[in-house]
């Protein structure tokens, strides 16, 4: 057993043949090289000593290593720091004993090595753990191995479990505040894409669809967005563009580390202005693309985000009545969403983490985004008085939006939207079902014919009582229909009260979100609810009931 110790809090250990050879208060274990030389025939130690190569040079250790007899086994553990006065000659001696990693040892790195005189190759029993870019303590090494009389070796240097990520280290040295990204335990991890296991999808159009990331001020949130973007199976990093305010050039360097494209934009007075510039720039960079995925600040993507968008893109390709898609559900709370496979049609635009068709951009937005799209995406964009948008969106969201930290805490609408517990898919790729306009309407009518009705009494309680929560235990059917009356098509008072009763998101001065042809769908206590004004044609199947 070998243990490198833990910074300056725990001493290193070496145990061989059931006997502790080095430990706290045993054989002076501590900083530098902790070395035991074992006779492979008798299994008895011939030397147990520490060489503090932080304080003094390594000549004494070189002498002991060079004096080993053929077949002798050396066990070495570096703790705290052993690189400061380690000579090149000593490194070469360790190379001859089987080390392939000693030349990589730097300040405060920890290392263990089991080699042998006349090994004739490179030992398979060696590991190094790198210190942080600013000298933070590395992750300790603790290994228990069975060592035969002939130490296992290879003619080719074995691949190390870790290697220094010099570009990432340089970034972390230059920029402060990247807590997890620059943590010593993670700083040398490679930033790589995830293989697409289903090879039949390699030519899917989604992998040729560009994505633009629009960072905000929170640089740790930017990292999380980039990390979860890179985790999308099959993604092509060169199809990802990170735009950033010219005063935050570090975001460009960060994007380069992930293999993404990046573009500096002139300074903006608001995030909304920055978003407009980013979308316009993305269409210039990817001018041949038919679609664009837009990722706002502080979003974390589910692992099946791109897969979900692929399903939506296929639906948009075959259904001209659709104008986009979002990966986020306004009503995707823990209490009001349930089914990962369900996709809604909604008269909203554009949503969060949205898929934008070029034809919609060119017809309604190009050269006019300052007028149509000067609000945050979650507030909705108004494209034209003659245009009723239809987009696809999930029941369970495929992105998680971090709580809105810079918000006015008195703004109850944003508190309700971003601080209430939400559902986000964590189960990997899920089969989802999209519908054309006709088939979706048929699906709604089918649900209604098989549904139970919410009683007028409970509807009245929902509307009039402040803390009424409908019970579903006595309802045997899986779907519940809510029929209500309103005086005019744009009179949403009753529906807002129902939203409040069930815990759905709404704003007092605007239509409720997720409406489609006057109906709204959601889950509540394991029941699928369909609510709408009885005068809408889609509800005529139940008018007599």
Automatic annotation (TrEMBL):
Its cofactor is Mn(2+). The keyword Transmembrane applies. Keywords: Glycosyltransferase, Golgi apparatus, Manganese, Membrane, Metal-binding, Signal-anchor, Transferase, Transmembrane, Transmembrane helix. Belongs to the glycosyltransferase 13 family. It is an enzyme of class 2 (transferase). GO terms for cellular component: Golgi membrane. Initiates complex N-linked carbohydrate formation. Essential for the conversion of high-mannose to hybrid and complex N-glycans. It comes from Pinctada imbricata. This is Alpha-1,3-mannosyl-glycoprotein 2-beta-N-acetylglucosaminyltransferase. SUPFAM superfamilies: Nucleotide-diphospho-sugar transferases (SSF53448). It is found in: Golgi apparatus membrane. The cofactor is mostly bound to the substrate. Residues 31-118 form the ILEI/PANDER domain. Pathway: Protein modification; protein glycosylation. One of its GO terms (molecular function) is beta-1,3-galactosyl-O-glycosyl-glycoprotein beta-1,3-N-acetylglucosaminyltransferase activity. It catalyses: N(4)-(alpha-D-Man-(1->3)-[alpha-D-Man-(1->3)-[alpha-D-Man-(1->6)]-alpha-D-Man-(1->6)]-beta-D-Man-(1->4)-beta-D-GlcNAc-(1->4)-beta-D-GlcNAc)-L-asparaginyl-[protein] (N-glucan mannose isomer 5A1,2) + UDP-N-acetyl-alpha-D-glucosamine = N(4)-{beta-D-GlcNAc-(1->2)-alpha-D-Man-(1->3)-[alpha-D-Man-(1->3)-[alpha-D-Man-(1->6)]-alpha-D-Man-(1->6)]-beta-D-Man-(1->4)-beta-D-GlcNAc-(1->4)-beta-D-GlcNAc}-L-asparaginyl-[protein] + UDP + H(+). PROSITE patterns: GG_LECTIN (PS52031). The keyword Translocase does not apply. Its EC number is 2.4.1.101. It is a single-pass type II membrane protein.
């Amino acid at each position: 057993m070998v243990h490198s110790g833990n910074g300056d809090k725990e001493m290193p250990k070496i145990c061989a043949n059931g006997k502790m050879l080095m430990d706290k208060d045993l054989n002076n274990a501590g900083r530098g090289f902790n070395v035991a030389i074992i006779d492979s025939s008798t299994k008895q130690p011939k030397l147990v000593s520490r060489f503090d190569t932080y304080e003094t040079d390594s000549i004494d250790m070189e002498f002991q290593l060079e004096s080993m007899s053929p077949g002798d086994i050396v066990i070495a553990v570096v703790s705290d720091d052993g690189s400061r006065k380690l000579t090149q000659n000593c490194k070469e001696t360790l190379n001859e004993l089987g080390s392939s990693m000693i030349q990589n040892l730097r300040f405060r790195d920890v290392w263990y090595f089991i080699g042998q005189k006349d090994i004739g190759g490179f030992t398979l029993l060696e590991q190094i753990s790198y210190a942080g870019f600013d000298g933070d303590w590395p992750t300790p090494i603790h290994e228990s191995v069975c060592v035969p009389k002939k130490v296992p070796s290879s003619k080719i240097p074995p691949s190390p479990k870790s290697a220094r990520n010099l570009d990432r280290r340089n970034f972390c040295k230059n920029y402060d505040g990247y807590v997890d990204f620059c943590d010593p335990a993670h700083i040398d991890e490679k930033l790589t894409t995830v293989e697409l296991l289903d090879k039949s999808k390699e030519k899917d159009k989604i992998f040729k669809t560009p994505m633009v990331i629009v960072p905000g001020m929170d640089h740790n949130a930017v990292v999380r967005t980039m990390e979860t973007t890179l985790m999308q199976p099959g993604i092509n990093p060169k199809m990802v563009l990170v735009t950033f305010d010219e005063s935050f050039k570090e975001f460009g360097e960060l994007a380069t580390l992930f293999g993404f494209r990046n573009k500096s934009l002139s300074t903006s007075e608001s995030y909304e202005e920055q978003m407009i510039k980013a979308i316009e720039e993305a269409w210039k960079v990817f001018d041949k693309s038919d679609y664009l995925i837009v990722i706002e600040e502080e979003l974390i993507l589910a692992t099946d985000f791109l897969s979900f968008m692929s399903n939506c893109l296929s639906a948009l390709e075959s259904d001209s009545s659709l104008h986009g898609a979002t990966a986020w559900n306004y009503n995707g709370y823990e209490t009001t969403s349930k089914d990962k496979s369900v996709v809604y049609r909604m008269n909203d635009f554009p949503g969060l983490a949205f898929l934008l068709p070029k034809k919609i951009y060119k017809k309604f937005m190009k050269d006019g985004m300052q007028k149509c799209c000067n609000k945050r995406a979650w507030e909705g964009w108004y494209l034209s008085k003659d245009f009723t948008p239809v987009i696809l969106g999930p029941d369970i969201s495929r992105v998680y939006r971090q709580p809105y930290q810079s918000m006015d805490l008195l703004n109850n609408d944003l508190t309700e939207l971003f601080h209430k517990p939400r559902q986000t898919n964590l189960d990997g790729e899920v089969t989802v079902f999209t519908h054309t306009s006709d088939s979706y309407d048929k699906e709604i009518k089918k649900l209604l014919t098989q549904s139970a009705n919410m009683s007028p009494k409970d509807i009245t309680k929902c509307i009039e009582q402040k803390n009424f929560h409908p019970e579903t235990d006595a309802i045997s059917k899986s779907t519940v229909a809510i029929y209500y009356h309103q005086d005019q098509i744009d009179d949403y008072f009753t529906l807002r009260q129902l939203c409040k009763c069930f815990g759905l998101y709404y704003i007092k001065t605007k239509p409720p979100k997720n409406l489609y042809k006057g109906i709204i769908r959601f889950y509540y206590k394991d029941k699928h609810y369909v609510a709408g004004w009885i005068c809408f044609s889609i509800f005529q199947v139940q008018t007599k009931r």
